[in-house]
Specification:
disordered N terminus; homodimer; alpha/beta
């Protein structure tokens, strides 16, 4: 038995590098590779893999995925999805409506469990625990996948403690199966024991700077599931627009959305997205960022924002949420009361970044309030006052929360369960500082994918490690993971998927796989394969490695 | 009568600028605008516009486009297209197959030429010349568009010398008509006299580094027509792949395409693309770049490329086309004989850029040849020898040609009709030098749109002017225009349209409109409108101005 990390031959098609550069300096220099994918390799890389040197053949019309737990909707839907995804022969239509992924293959009557020479007739999926309904922080995603292993020759089997592990294991299974070209598929005998390095592997989308259609959010959830990301951080509203249709405060979107009739998320749509994520083992963590980033809130909720003053009177502009009025906190209590019901995840992201003090400073009522409370001219004390009251609201609602790093930078006392989200440079010092305060920490600083640049940029994201800072073992253990961010200034439904993927998958492997897997050149053929796989599965995923081709890139219209 | 450049109110929705920056330096600073479009404004800006302060109403079910010339396929198809595009009420499906743009509106029997109070029942299109079939360099694109002008009250009329002028005029008409919301449309009384500043307004796509499906090439031609670009420079083959299916040399694509079965352009597809471009007044200038950039040619045409030597014998690698063999020129004569028939445009782009001498230097047969011809060790003389023979082939085929600047840099004597394509920095010196040699010149240096960067980059392309260099009036007059380039290293069907547009439209206005229209801030609402219009017409066009929304961005799936 050869125990090793998967190491498949990378096929490089080397051609001369006649790269057009407009500065005229770089003429023909180095050979440029056309990176070809490596079929049958998974992304992200499992923790440990053994190979046994044999191949089993699968006839998809005579193959079953057998699950031990019954009446578990999440497993039923998962098996349906993976029966389709594992045995794709044709390219799925690009941008197809996301709900149409039903299993079109009909298993025939004669489909029975028969062990035959070299043929695999089923994979048996055993979930040791109960059918959990909602994914959560620190859920168990471990699985053991065996294909024709010495102790179970001729069989395939997947064992996990939870449905989440089964989901991840079936994704891996679907990736290591490869087409043999004649309607048959092959899978190498192997044993894979896998679990994630970090438990919070997120992706942030911003639906305020541009509206993003539900179908595109679902495509993104598909891509996340294919890459084993498990938190959709939904930065749903911001200054520019308020697309969330509140039950209690419908005016917020009626006045604050770009176009209320078309550019909003109804309660049904929000529930649909949460459920779409749930059955893929993805948490939806909603962010309602306050007290700054709230210009769009002010349109539908009068008196919520601070009136700014010029020359001794209000000038018509507004600043952050008004922290000195009890009505603000009454509103927030009611609003977050709704939010914590609509979004079932244990965590809400409270934002708290970039609070502009200039409007507060201009307002004489706030000046009075500052004096009365002995804040002097330290407006971060006022911010702290606001955050403390907001945090108390959330605690009374029995929810945990994530916050941008500024909140703790400003000394707000938060629940020890709080997750602090680091997004500023200098990255290593920030990680050091926040973990030294004992908070669970997420990293995003080096993963702002909205900052595009020319060329093959994914190795830059791939090699950034959230535990690379000076700190104790305990500090390192506080790193819960991180999040890819795709802020919305320059993306909407037209380019969100293609611009986010496959680049986000680089971070997905960093957050799932072992720390010492860091060689981007070695990873390139697997990365290419993952891109081509996503394309084949109907996602509009852009080139990542430079000149290349995929089996299914030609069907894009 | 107020004679002025169109100056429509730009609607700015000002909100605070809470831009997430990962370096933590730029917190809240300046207000950030959500740029809204300005309905009824055209892009690119016409040369001169007068407005008369009235509005006419159009009922699309009772409106005709009347054309004076009969049996002119180009005009028939154009009227069909613009009857649809002018009166779009719903968003067209994104990425819809490009041939489906048929006119779905049925004009009723009672549709007669009746002049009524404020209603417009037709536009009369008069083409003074004959029905030309093929667009060409320096074709006449001028038109005069009158809507309810004092000399023709209550009427709309478009006059041009050629079908090309009529095409451009109908595009403008379709852009200045705006929806009144109840199924009716409005158009302001106006007189527009328009013609392009430059006659060659091109866009280069590279289908070798990645394959681009025919449907996507057609979408791009639509976007070009909407922006009045008139040359599709098809960089069809290169080192990485050879997707052109040659009639005489089918092995070139059989061996040189990424996947010959799916990643090639058949003769029928090439003809289809050329015709699709033709009826939109767009030339297709094919580039078959030699002697470098030909690695993919060598696979299907043995002995075409120069064998490279190491240690006195061939090392298995190949360099540019072998310039010392008569068989190379025999092949080129036959190959370009085919190409000049397949591509009817007067111009072929011969490439000629970035010729690597290292392989030629290594080859002892080439060393002998150099000696025999008295070239010494000056390999640019050998390149000149090759180019001269290639250019002679094209002259014998009675075709004109475009070449990258290196060819004349190296002193090759080319036909005075040659168009020289400048792509290197320093831009102004290069333009100066090439025009001082008396050649017609195209600029691309500042318009390499494949070099992406974060943020609102279109003003950079918008403000680059091809006549801004020190030179005589005669030198300036040699500037034929320029080309936007979207090289294919990082684009394929998944992201080509969204990444190219609306950015390429910035260059389209530079090349069409008057030189002193240079204020990108003033242009922004029109640019936004143009983006939203392209989206409404079913093109996957990405955001250009930062946070924003379009009527039809929510339908993207």
């Amino acid at each position: 038995m050869k125990s090793t990390l998967l190491c498949l031959t990378s096929i490089l098609w080397v051609v001369a590098a006649h790269n057009h550069l407009p500065d005229g300096t770089a003429v023909v220099t180095e050979p440029q590779n056309v990176v070809a994918g490596s079929p049958g390799t998974p992304w992200p890389m499992p923790k440990s893999t053994s190979e046994f040197g044999t191949v089993m053949t699968i006839d998809p019309t005579n193959f079953k995925m057998l699950v031990n737990i019954k009446n578990c909707d999440i497993m039923n839907q998962t098996v349906q999805r993976y029966m389709k995804l594992t045995f794709l022969e044709k390219c799925l239509p690009i941008d197809s409506p996301r709900n149409s992924l039903s299993n079109s293959k009909k298993n025939s009557e004669k489909n029975k469990m028969i062990k035959a020479n070299g043929m695999l007739y089923n994979i048996s999926v055993t979930v040791l625990g109960k059918c959990e309904k909602w994914p959560y922080l620190n859920m168990d995603e471990q699985y053991l996948l065996k294909i024709d292993s010495p102790d179970l020759p001729g069989k395939a089997n997947l064992v996990s403690s939870t449905v989440w592990g089964a989901l991840r294991g079936l994704e891996t299974f679907s990736q290591i199966v490869y087409s043999l070209g004649d309607g048959k598929f092959g899978v190498n005998s192997t044993m894979i024991l896998d679990s994630p390095r970090f438990s919070h592997r997120g992706l942030l989308l911003d639906t305020s700077r541009h509206f993003v259609p539900v179908s595109v959010l679902k495509q993104n959830l598909d891509a996340m599931a294919y890459s084993k990301l498990n938190v959709f951080h939904w930065h749903i509203v911001d200054d520019q627009s308020f697309p969330y249709e509140s039950l209690k405060f419908p005016k917020l979107s009626e006045m604050g959305a770009f176009i209320p009739k078309t550019h909003t998320y109804s309660q049904e749509e929000v529930a649909d997205i949460i459920n779409y994520a749930r059955v893929r083992g993805i948490r939806v963590m909603a962010e309602f960022d306050t007290p700054g980033h709230t210009q769009s809130w002010g349109k539908g909720q009068p008196d919520l924002l601070t009136p700014c003053y010029s020359g001794g009177k209000p000038n018509g502009n507004f600043g952050p949420i008004n922290p000195i009025l009890q009505s603000s906190y009454d509103f927030l209590a009611e609003f977050f009361g709704e939010i914590t019901k609509v979004f079932p995840d244990n965590y809400v992201h409270l934002g708290g970044d970039e609070v502009d003090f200039s409007c507060w400073k201009s307002n004489p009522n706030i000046t009075d309030f500052m004096k009365k409370h002995g804040f002097g001219s330290d407006y971060s004390k006022l911010e702290e006052y606001y955050e403390q009251k907001l945090v108390n609201i959330l605690q009374s609602l029995k929810k945990s929360y994530t916050i941008w790093q500024e909140v703790v930078d400003n000394g707000v006392k938060v629940d020890p369960n709080t997750v602090v989200h680091v997004w500023k440079d200098p990255q290593v010092q920030e990680l050091q500082r926040v973990t030294s305060m004992g908070y669970k920490t997420l990293l995003s600083t080096c993963w702002y994918l909205n900052y595009i640049s020319y060329g093959k940029d994914w190795p830059k994201y791939y090699t950034c490690d959230p535990q690379e800072f000076n700190g104790t073992e305990y500090q390192k253990s506080l790193i819960m993971g991180g999040e890819v961010c795709m802020w919305g200034e320059f993306v909407d439904g037209t380019n969100l998927i293609s611009r986010t993927w496959p680049r986000a998958a680089a971070v997905a492997e960093r957050l799932w796989s072992v720390a010492d897997l860091k060689d981007a050149d070695k990873a390139a053929p697997r990365f290419e394969e993952h891109r081509c796989r996503m394309l084949k599965r109907g996602l509009r995923v852009q080139p990542g490695n430079g000149p290349s081709f995929c089996e299914c890139d030609f069907v894009v219209s």
